[in-house]
Amino acid sequence: MRSNRVGWLMLAPTIAILGIFGIVPFLYVLYVAFHQWNPFGANPHMIYNGADNFRRLVFDNEFLTSIAFTLKFAFFAVVSEVILGYLLAQLFMREFPGRGLFRTIHTLPLIVAPIVVGSVWRLMTTPSIGIIPYLLKSWFGYDLNIGRDATMAFALTVIMDIWHWTPLVTLTLLAALVSLPKEPFEQAQIDGANRWQIFWHVTLPMIRPAILATVFIRLMDALRTVDEVWMLTGGGPGAATRYLGLHIWKIVFPKTDYGYGSATSIIVLYLTLVMCWLLYVALVARRDQKRPS
Amino acid sequence: MKHELRMGLAAMAVGLMTSVMPASADFWSDAGAKYKGVTLHGVTESTPPSNYIKDVLAPAFEKATGIKVEIETTSWDQMYDKAIKDMEAKTGIYDMVYIEQDIIYAYLARDFLVDITKSLKDDPSLKAPEYDETHFTTFANYFKNADGDLFGIPMEAFIKLYLYRTDLFNDPAIKEAFKKETGKDLVPAKTHEEYTQIAEFFTKWGKDHNLELWGTTAQAHTGHPASWYEFFESIAPTFGVYNWGIDASKNYSASVANGGTMNSDKAKAALKYWLHLRDIAPPESPASTWTEVGTTFAAGRAAQGLVYGENAAWIAADAEKSKVVGNVGVALPPLAPGVMEDAEAGKGYIGYYDGGAFGLPVTSKNKEAALLFLQYIGQDSVQGDWAVAAPRITNTATYDDPKVIEMDKKLNGYYTMLKNDGKLFAGAPPYPFHAQVREATAPIFYKILLGEVSSDDGLDQMAAAAEAELKNLGYRK
């Protein structure tokens, strides 16, 4: 009884912070989502409108397009980061001259604020002054203009994200690889397993929890990306890089459509949860079910 | 006796002057004494006039009154985010907010701002002797309510004007080539056809001579509202499409079918004209907002262009930032027939008169101290240096300041144009739904810029989207 009380007491600050900064705002957003509320409308007050905002979302082409672009962005960015991060982690497992220096340089993007990353990439890609269009033109005769080329603008947002966040994946997987015991690998070698078999049957299952955690973190981050993309493309050209975070920002702030923006946020949160759950089922739960008891 | 009388009168005059002058000179320290230790917080867009407030006027005010002023200069979007959130949530963080001319109607509709005229009338002890709201130019009218009360102290005002490169326009070889090619003299354009012809000529000239030179600027960002503004505030009016093509008197109609002009033939012609210019402008144009347009012109990459006046001074006179110092001419924008007549008759306008004011949120916790600061920046005496540092004029007397007259020569008559022709330009229409309609229609506009939808169809869709949004907001019945 006594230990329970102490336990709750210890948890109280965390619960209070979670309640104030997590649960209360969420409940408020949920409440607003069921209202029409634009402070610059003819009636600036909240008007209860049931599920109208959610109904509107289903037919909102801009929202649906934004979901499609965001999923595409998240897929390319996260998959590339995990593959590249794993390869780099494997590289850092080996001894080579300048490893420490390279590892430090490779980690530097992590300490740069997203808004700065976006600004730097914008400077590097602006036609006529950016180094990337200059080099592409000089070497390949290719005119890079992210103000006009939607595919290139999309690709650049993915590349920027990979540049910024691959080090996080590398560090996580490196920590996982370093902590693995040597025995299973030695046993596999004695049994005559080749490199691929060792990777597939030994390494991968053992670092799966780390991969999963990294994928979840990166997926959630990619689905809510705003600052970098806002700086680099402003969501353009057209809606080519108007990802969900940016889409919601535009509804809530410049357009001040608080009710609709709240409904959009709720749906995006729901989508994120569903995606993470599906991923969990696909990568963990199903495999656990197959495992012989 | 006469001599004694004269001496007596002189002594009396000196006595009177010495007894009156300190009272006036000490107003700021006397008035500020009550608020010593107070720190005022303001948020504004990072522009040359705002930076002058932050770097020069705020420290000077602090020295005079003991009231500390912290001015936060940030991007246009962030500035609105912060100010609106603060006033909406009534947190009272800011004592001064920048009010761009186009947002004032929305702020007034929400009662966000303090009535400055009334506040100073109610408490005359706060009224600075040098401050007089009748000294402002007519631009101040944009910040008044129906009763004529002022809700913002004008702090920047400029027109978006037609800049051209005098070195290129006066180059004998170029003039001869232009004459040979078009049969016309190379002079600043007065019509859209002339402007297009000059733009095409210079773009070709740059290409033929392997120069980084194009015929025109274009503020044509494909994901930023700057492009939307350029079209609706600077291009469409020159074709006779005013107030974004929305007619408030006809149930806020935007489409031609309902009485608006957003998708009228004039609007469609204007868009085609501008899209063509965008195509022959420097390659950075699809990623250019107002800032980049100024930079493009200053880098000597465009022979002519429509440029916001706030950038005109540094483009024309700051050799550290601009490659075209001494080679910048100013002119009125090219117009379609009838537009100048509309403007002169007060039925229309020929371009954008932009600017902003500093307002006092009702949620401020330091209203009296903030009122002192607002009067301080509204005095005639601080305007001359401010106008030289940043090309803005908000007080009538500033035009006659010797420093401003000197600067006007360097700018090839920009201030004279602002004084004489400013009345032909206009700010945003008095709608309280500015950002809402823009955001509802801008995605379609970006599609037009990308060629995903034709300009004609796009304008039709925009007119429909504007009406739908206005209905959703409750303005359109």
What does this structure look like?
The complex is a heterodimer of chains A (293) and B (477). Helices cover 74% and strands 1% of the residues of chain A. Chain A has helices at residues 2-33, 52-58, 61-93, 99-107, 114-125, 131-140, 150-178, 183-190, 195-223, 227-232, 244-252, 258-290, and strands spanning 35-36, 47-48. The mean pLDDT of chain A is 91. Chain B has 477 residues and is an alpha/beta fold. Chain B is 48% helix and 10% strand. Chain B is built from 20 helices and seven strands. In chain B, strands 1, 2, 3, 4, 5, 6 and 7 form a seven-stranded mixed β-sheet that branches. The radius of gyration of chain B is 25 Å and the shape is globular. The model of chain B is unreliable at 13-24 (pLDDT under 50). The A-B interface holds A 38-44, 62, 126-129, 143, 145-148, 150, 233-239, 241-242, 250-251, 253-257 and B 77, 80-81, 84, 88, 106, 109-110, 212, 220-225, 282-288, 292, 301, 432-433, 435-436, 438-440, 443, 446-447, 449-450, 452, 472-475.
